[in-house]
Amino acid sequence: xxxxxxxxxxxxxxxxxxxxxxxxxxxxxxxxxxxxxxxxxxxxxxxxxxxxxxxxxxxxxxxxxxxxxxxxxxxxxxxxxxxxxxxxxxxxxxxxxxxxxxxxxxxxxxxxxxxxxxxxxxxxxxxxxxxxxxxxxxxxxxxxxxxxxxxxxxxxxxxxxxxxxxxxxxxxxxxxxxxxxxxxxxxxxxxxxxxxxxxxxxxxxxxxxxxxxxxxxxxxxxxxxxxxxxxxxxxxxxxxxxxxxxxxxxxxxxxxxxxxxxxxxxxxxxxxxxxxxxxxxxxxxxxxxxxxxxxxxxxxxxxxxxxxxxxxxxxxxxxxxxxxxxxxxxx
Length: 331
Ligand code: NAD
Ligand code: TDX
What we know:
It contains 11 helices and 13 strands. With 331 residues, the protein is of the alpha/beta class.
């Protein structure tokens, strides 16, 4: 297939492009606006015969139309993706995640192409720390932050285009990803690079919030399986059954990096901070045979730490500005 990959210079999208070009016969055209979160260096080394980067905005209807006309399927990763940024300035989230997804949908509708929409478990809201329940594909949306509300809205648009126009689209809602090429504003790379530059890791609130960590390559294998074999119109949840408190994650990072396990600071909590996410991903396992390959979080974390150690040029230029922004909000 010829794939258009939106947001392919970001964390998950760039890993997806490498996995597709190196592991399948599909060719890729990336459309990416190269916001602060996009990094052209994440796409280095890909063969020109299989891959092309177009710098542009998914909100640009004419550009999306031209790109979609010339492909077999669209994999839609592009988004404003950071909860903390959405609390400070929601505008770009409404623009890219809602208006941008609308333009993707309209281009796909005009040209009758296949679409896979990449979304998050955060659309379902949060669970109490001791709640045995898990999100299922039928759980009603109940988002907490401007980010997750904009993603829930984008999912709603996709569902409406499937029902009203018969669009051949699927949706995945995934748990927290970790791995190489993740922007250092995010939790795990922020703490790894803090240790590398001699700062103490920063935990929001008491550090008791829980996330279900999935390696980015496993997420992308799920996206590929759904793209190739998923049933039209369906929603698939993607998770790892790897729930950890943020405190446990920071302790693991400190241990792996040879620091005392309590060498972190507790800082101001995120307003509206979701407590815990947990997803029932049995539909993906039973229908498409997917299951995570990275079963051992500590092993995946070690490889991720090694990647940030070995790729300082990739993240170092942004470190001071990212930390200055956090400091300004006491985080
Ligand atoms: P990211 O912020 O690292 O990358 C987003 C990419 O989209 C960047 O390259 C950016 O330049 C590009 N982009 C932003 N606005 C654009 C626009 N208007 N036009 C074109 N390109 C634009 O995000 P990520 O962590 O890789 O997340 C990718 C997708 O996966 C998002 O849709 C996100 O909601 C979803 N998701 C992320 C996680 C996670 O843990 N990171 C988990 C579940 C789902
Ligand atoms: O410095 C920090 N300290 C801290 O305790 C940061 C940056 C975060 N945290 C906490 C907040 C969360 O409980 O760590 C947890 C993870 O934070 P983020 O990396 O910001 O991720 P989260 O808000 O959970 O959202 C992520 O997963 C779902 C992605 O950023 C989203 O794009 C995805 O949809």
